[in-house]
Amino acid sequence: MSIFQLLDVEKYYVVGRTAAGEEKRLKALDGVRLEIHEGDTVALVGESGSGKSTLVRLMLGLEQPTNGRLFFRQTELREFDRQTRQNFAREVSFIYQNARGSMNPRMRVGDILAEPMLLFGLCKESAARTRVSVLLDKVGLSASMIDRFPAELSGGQVRRVAVARALASEPRVIIADECVAGLDVSVQAQLLNLLRTLCTEMGLTLVFITHDLGVASYLCQRTAVMYLGCIVEQGPTLELLTKPLHPYTRALTESFPSFERPLKAALSGEIPSPINLPQGCRFSTRCSDVKDACRLKDPPLILQPDGRRGVACLFPLAVPVEPLAALVEVTLTH
Amino acid sequence: MMMGLLSVSDVITSESAGNVPKGALTSDADTNTQSSTERALLCINGLTLRRGNAAVLDEVSLTLLKGRTLGLVGESGAGKSTLAMAIIGLLMAPEVQLTGSMLYQEQQLVGLSDKHFSKLRGKKIGLIFQDATTSLDPCFTIGEQIIEPLRRHLGLKRTEALERAVELLDSVGIPDARARLSAYPHQLSGGMQQRVMISIALACSPELLIADEPTSALDVTVQAQIMDLILKRVRATGASAVIVLHDLALTSQVCDDVAVMYAGQIVETGPAHLVLEQALHPYTIGLRSCVVEFDSSELVPLPGTVPSLAEMPSGCRFSSRCAYVKPKCFEARPPLEWIEGRWVACWQLDAVHSRVMR
Amino acid sequence: MVDISVSSASAPRKNSTWVKRWWQPLRRQPSALAGLSIVGAYLVLAVFAPVFATHDPILQDFAVALQPPSFEHWLGTDSFGQDVYSRVLYGARLALWIGFASVFLGLFGGMSIGLIAGLVGGRLEWALMRLVDSILAFPEIILAMAFIAVLGLGIENLIYALAVSFVGPFARIVRSDVLQVKALPFIEAAQLMGVTSWRIILRHLIPNVMSSLLVQAGIRISTAILLASGLSFFGIGVVPPTPDWGLIIAEGRGFITMAPWISGFPGAALAILLIGLTLLGDGLRNALNPSSEGR
Predict the structure, then answer these.
(1) Residue to test with chain B: of C1, C2, C5, C8, most B Cβ within 10 A
(2) Cα dist from C98 to A155, A249, C251, whole Å
(3) What is the ipTM of this complex?
(4) In what order do the strands lie in the sheet with A92-95?
(5) Residue B345 belongs to a domain with what CATH number?
């Protein structure tokens, strides 16, 4: 059952004009194709400028794509009517990176958590307090938190409240933006365990933005690696990390600090500006295996024959059984 | 984890090990004490830093030898940044009270005036902050900021200093270095800014480099580049380094030695690979099992959080969260003992040992 | 699940956070406490003026005119034989009333303009802000004088005139606060959840704009009182024989050498109240500022 479908989604911003009078475009997303099914746990991995945050904003309907189409349960986001929009808000919860900032500092935790419950008519006001206590317990916080303000909570606690709020509307999908970044390792571990348990227990679909490959491997079955506005590789997380097909993925895994491998500066140079994308393959300026053909053609994301992995590279690292599988067209059942 | 055959009773305590300085990070336990003190660049003994009533650093002792890199790891509130700032004299009376001893070569740093410290800073001790964006002055060009220490400490003339600045920028991998001299910090990316910070820190070829989370604000591929750069430059000049990090895996790859801090105290210190991969202290073990790796099946987080300074338990500060805690742990603070090639402070090492062996 | 609640504080009551947020930080600053006691004392005296007064403040008795402080008249009498003490007391009442009323009205007006400007944006915001700019182009006292000239003298008109001159600053403050708060993540989070715009404004936006606004309002009360006294001093404020400090000071001007108590006491009363309000205002501002030493 497909939850999200993204078809060649592009998003660019006009940031001025060149001397010749043409538009200067900042391409935050340059053609993304992605499908997320019910129960999937997908990590969107990328560094700054990859477009992962923009992608999620489009998925949430906060902004509209410049080109391409975005579907939620077969309905295009652009064409949401009031009722669909409300259903969407209830089914899809978002956890912000800035957990503390995403909560009204003048509201108590109890009210913050009760708001979605009352909004979606999940309970009566009289029953709200009990429900909130149950919810707090689920995320490992005591009921005494109900009367506190977000400013009084520690970093780990406030993230748990953010998770609790995401769960309050009884969603089917949780989208989270770097919600464990910047935490102490033990607090991060607690939160990761919590998320993992909740996802398995409740059968949630999870879309998790992170720059940390370890976190991606712990939480998500599938990973999509993004670079300069495109998905360059996607597939089962563990396979992707241990046997990467795209040179960028390989560089990411090699740069990730590990106890076993010595530190290696796998990637040189700086990320190009999204206003001036490189000719041909966007990774060609930094790829250690670059060939002439790479500078001429921008490779599309091609699914491997088994359908599990996709890579956007003219010369992927492991030669697949059949080099060029046909692009699997996404069929829409209307 | 493979433990050696030593049991706790065979331990060499600091008293019986002759005058091996506490925290001396020698891999060979019976190294000649004379040579280890000669090679010591920084000798910290019983350093306590108080802010008001609270002891933010509590009797910290460690030794940094010439040419070695020491990593300071721990969670928030452990005091690692505080220690780094204290070493370089950015935390002084009257905001804080420092007691104990910090010997830099033969010079006592505790109680040193700011005037004398500023002679050391930049020239003998270089400093790299976490966030280059806020550490570089946005009103001055890169060139101005690099030549400032050069002119101040080395007395170079302006043209000489500018030439040296170009060399420095080149050596940290900034393309088109000469043109970059007239750029302002905001015109550079985060990675580039950090490289500039490194070049400023290394401008006068210091003997000691102090870096406070130098790559935390950077992407992982840039982090690898920057850490690689720092290491190369430090090794090339034979300098020592104290690097504050929160990433244990990174620390094990980058640092020769490591000091694990908890609530203002050093709980375990020794060669990095040894301490982090064959940890003895329950806190280090706990930290290690929280690190997310590609093949982590189950993370075992430490229960609770670091207690505030007002709620610190008596005796061993980790006792409120330790799985091996016994009544003795509340009575007195465990001293650092030399066991299996590292210093560790724990009363229950026997229990930890046997549990891990199973 | 592990309980990781940070402190073992007792179950918080509804008002304990109010106490924590306002009272405790205030209590730590001696100057703020001094301010609070001064203002508090004045409030008590003003509210209970009829009880504390010894004479009718506008009762004239030329037989006892220009008498120094005595047992009969604690602060002496003025040139009309009116009891200075009672006039000063009723003057406190008037000053505080004018101060609060004009600031409140100005706040109301300014907030409406600022809210609309900040929320709607576009051309309307531009137009409203230019209107505010034109109000702000005049010094407050000139603006007030102009309105008095149009409306006439008297307490009510004085209040309206002062209120108008406060609309400008408040509108600006509210608009910039609204713009700031509007961009914060929790507003977007509420929108994502599907909370209606009205509820976002009332429940999320306004409460976060109010606290700094209230502190600004408090500070402006002293401005209002000073302005009102000034206008009355010039004779373009309240109508005699209303017991207004400015008016009393003006009346005593001609007798400064002979009977300094006529101008002296209301002047001192005004000065002390203003100091008290300033101290309190500073204290409140520091208390609400999380990064200051008060916390």
Answers:
(1) C2
(2) 46, 70, 20
(3) 0.84
(4) A92-95, A173-177, A205-210, A41-45, A222-227, A230-236, A310-311, A302-303
(5) 3.40.50.300
Measured between CB atoms, does A190 come within 8 Å of chain B? yes
The Cα B63–Cα B31 span in angstroms is 14
Q: Which 8-state DSSP code applies to residue B187?
A: G
Count of CB atoms within 10 A of residue A39's CB? Answer: 15
Residue B63 is part of which domain span?
Answer: 8-124+206-357
pTM of structure: 0.81
CATH number, domain of C79, equals: 1.10.3720.10
In the block, tokens 């004392």 appear at C41
Q: Which chain A residues have a beta carbon less than 8 Å from that of C14?
A: 147
Structure tokens at B355: 């549990």
Give yes or no for B305 touching C (CB within 8 A).
Answer: yes
Pick from C5, C14, C192: which is nearest to A60 by CB? C192
- Give the span between the Cα atoms of A34 and A45, in whole angstroms: 14
Residues 6+ away with beta carbon under 8 Å from B156: B147, B150, B164
d(C-alpha A282, C-alpha B194), whole Å: 25
CATH top-level class for A2-311?
A: alpha beta
Residues in Cβ contact with B178 at an 8 Å cutoff, skipping those fewer than 6 apart: B166
Residuewise pLDDT in 10s, chain B (358 residues): 333 333 333 333 333 333 344 444 443 444 444 455 567 889 999 999 988 888 889 899 999 999 999 999 998 888 899 999 898 888 877 788 888 999 998 888 888 888 888 888 878 898 998 888 888 899 999 999 988 888 888 888 888 889 999 988 888 888 888 888 999 998 888 888 999 999 888 888 899 999 999 888 888 888 898 899 899 989 988 999 999 998 899 999 999 999 999 999 999 999 999 999 899 999 999 999 889 888 778 888 888 888 887 788 888 899 988 888 888 888 889 999 998 899 999 998 888 777 766 5
Domain residue limits at C170: 36-55+71-288
- Using the beta-carbon criterion (under 8 Å), do A189 and B301 form an inter-chain contact? yes
Please indicate, yes or no, if residue B100 is contained in any of the structural domains.
yes
| Interchain pair A141, C5: CB under 8 A | yes
- E-assigned strands of A237-317? 302-303, 310-311
Q: Which of C9, C194, C204 is closest, CB to CB, to A119?
A: C194
Cα separation, B134 vs B237, in Å, equals 27
d(CA B186, CA C241): 66
Strand order in the sheet with B97-104: B54-65, B40-51, B97-104, B107-108
**Would you list the domain boundaries of chain A?**
2-311
Region of residue C69 (phi > 0: left; psi between -120 and 50: alpha; otherwise: beta): beta
Residue C66 covered by a domain: no
Q: Say if B172 falls within a structural domain.
A: no
Distance between CA atoms of residues B251 and C57, nearest Å:
81
Domain count, chain B: 1
For residue A189, the chain B residues in CB contact (below 8 A) are: 290, 292, 299-302
- Confirm whether C294 is domain-assigned: no
